[in-house]
Design brief:
Oligomer: single chain
Number of strands: 12
Distance between the termini: 31 Å
Number of helices: 20
Bound molecules: heme C
Largest sheet: 2 strands, parallel
Strand content: 5-15%
Radius of gyration: 23 Å
């Protein structure tokens, strides 16, 4: 019999003979629990040289995507503003911070720090943003400068969406935290600064105001990474579709990545590097040659992109090594109720059935880590946009440190309580108020 069915049967069964097996299964859960606490940390041995190389790539490599962000979308000119030779109001540091861009305090020389503190550096002047770019201090945004020292183009890196800062200097300015999703970053609003939204309108076969509405509808910490494949901008009930930027940490031992399991980490890095960031590299996925599901991908041959030189394929091993090296952050002691968390762990691994999918220590399924929408009790809109048609069991480590903005792929649940209420209803778990509290405290501790 299927293990999950067995567990389900056992947890609900009152048949005495099964009670013995139930006892045995409890013992098993206890063993698993011990293993959990012993091996949670990321222990894979990685080549430090490769990891260091991957870190550079993750933070600073645009793969030549300036061709899109500057040559097509003119984001460099939007940053400069009309007074500095671009167009529009320009992007001051204050505006940049307001749309969620982050500044690496460690990249700022002492005189710049002093200038910001004293007000000598005007945070409302777009020219100051250009200086921050020159210092290579804006996370995930790389500026290129011509011989005269003028900004000539910008491109983006992985760190744009998958890094934030610890706010140690001030809000939005601090030490880099790679792998954390930037849940303040309003990607849509940043793209909408472009004076050439027509390029996206042409791609998607809609008008410019529609593009603008969609981009402004994503919201902070969200992005739609399949839009330029299937052209699907709205959910069936007419809401703008977007997914929460996920963590890029704690991924050791995790098979399929992304909310709907498009592929493993290496697959997705190539997907995003080439088809989303628009880096100059190769990407191959014949699953996209399906005009019914992916009309925009077919029109633009996105399932078979070839560039010479290929700036993505050669960096995939280093990028993989770096991401695997980023441990899930460990929640601070005192940030949760330890006693409750202990009981919560028993529930998680036992009667609440969470560990039938979120298997510790990876907290995703071992193997083909996908489930149907029906299994988890939600609609299949996002799953059906993926070639898998399913949802991937989210790895949960570091959860409490990256859940700003909402939980589940589209942020539909605002709190851990809401998630647990959902499972309680869906699986008819009959959790008491205390159980729910304990489960939440456990989730905050992992
Ligand atoms: C514009 C924002 C953005 C950029 C830039 C970006 N990503 Fe992502 N990333 C996302 C979003 C959104 C998802 C979730 C996609 C989905 O499932 O719908 C994601 C998913 C992922 C995942 C899967 C995580 C998991 O839980 O399975 C990994 C790994 C990842 N990105 C790594 C990278 C790397 C490496 C780069 C640079 C090559 C990069 N990303 C660039 C937004 C971004
Ligand atoms: C049948 C498999 C399955 C079971 C059982 C299950 N989950 Fe999940 N869980 C999933 C999948 C799949 C997702 C991704 C859903 C999405 O993103 O829309 C998920 C997502 C989550 C999330 C959101 C993570 C995030 O970053 O958004 C939390 C929290 C969570 N589960 C906790 C639990 C808890 C607690 C239990 C037990 C009460 C549980 N899960 C039981 C499969 C399961």
């Amino acid at each position: 019999m299927h293990m999950k069915k067995l567990a389900l049967l056992l947890s609900r069964s009152a048949v005495p003979i099964l009670g013995v097996i139930l006892l045995m299964s409890c013992e098993k859960a206890e063993i698993r629990t011990k293993i959990t606490t012993r091996t949670v940390t990321d222990t894979l041995h990685l080549d430090p040289v490769l990891v260091a190389e991957g870190k550079e790539v993750f933070r600073y490599d645009t793969f030549g995507d300036e061709v899109f962000w500057s040559d097509v979308m003119h984001i460099d000119k939007a940053i400069l503003g009309e007074v500095n030779g671009g167009y529009g109001a320009g992007v001051s540091p204050a505006t940049a911070l307001a749309v969620g861009l982050k500044v690496d305090a460690e990249a700022l020389p002492a005189e710049v720090v002093a200038g910001i503190q004293s007000g000598a550096i005007d945070l409302n002047d777009p020219a100051s943003t250009v200086e921050l770019l020159r210092l290579n201090s804006v996370l995930g945004v790389m500026g290129n400068f011509d011989e005269d020292g003028d900004l000539s183009s910008v491109g983006i890196t992985c760190a744009f969406c998958h890094s934030t800062v610890d706010n140690s200097f001030s809000a939005g300015i601090g030490k880099r935290l790679d792998g954390y999703p930037n849940r303040d970053l309003n990607v849509g609003v940043i793209i909408s600064l472009s004076d050439n939204l027509q390029a996206l309108a042409d791609l998607l076969h809609v008008d410019e105001p529609t593009v603008n509405t969609v981009l402004n509808g994503w919201g902070p910490g969200r992005y739609n990474a399949v839009l330029n494949m299937d052209g699907v901008a709205l959910t069936p009930d007419g809401q703008v579709a977007s997914n929460m930027i996920p963590a890029a940490f704690g991924l050791q031992g995790v098979n399929l990545t992304t909310y709907s399991g498009w592929g493993d980490m290496v697959y997705w890095n190539a997907y995003v590097g080439v088809t989303q960031m628009r880096g100059q590299g190769n990407f191959f996925d014949p699953r996209l040659n399906d005009a019914t599901h992916y009309p925009i991908a077919v029109e633009n041959n996105l399932g078979n992109v070839i560039h010479s030189p290929d700036r993505v394929t050669p960096i995939l091993p280093a990028l993989q090594a770096y991401q695997l090296s980023i441990p899930a952050p460990i929640p601070a002691e005192g940030s949760y109720d330890a006693e409750a968390a202990e009981h919560g762990m028993e529930l998680f691994n036992g009667t609440a059935q969470c560990a039938t999918c979120h298997v510790p220590p990876t907290f995703t399924d071992s193997g083909h880590n996908l489930h149907t929408a029906e299994e988890i009790g939600i609609d299949d809109f996002e799953a059906s946009r993926s070639p898998t048609g399913m949802y991937r069991t989210t790895p949960l480590r570091g959860l409490s440190l990256r859940m700003q903005g909402g939980l589940y792929h589209d942020g539909r649940f605002q709190s851990l309580n809401e998630v647990i209420d959902h499972y309680n209803d869906h699986f008819d778990l009959q959790l008491t108020a205390d159980d729910k509290y304990d489960l939440v405290e456990y989730l905050k501790s992992i």
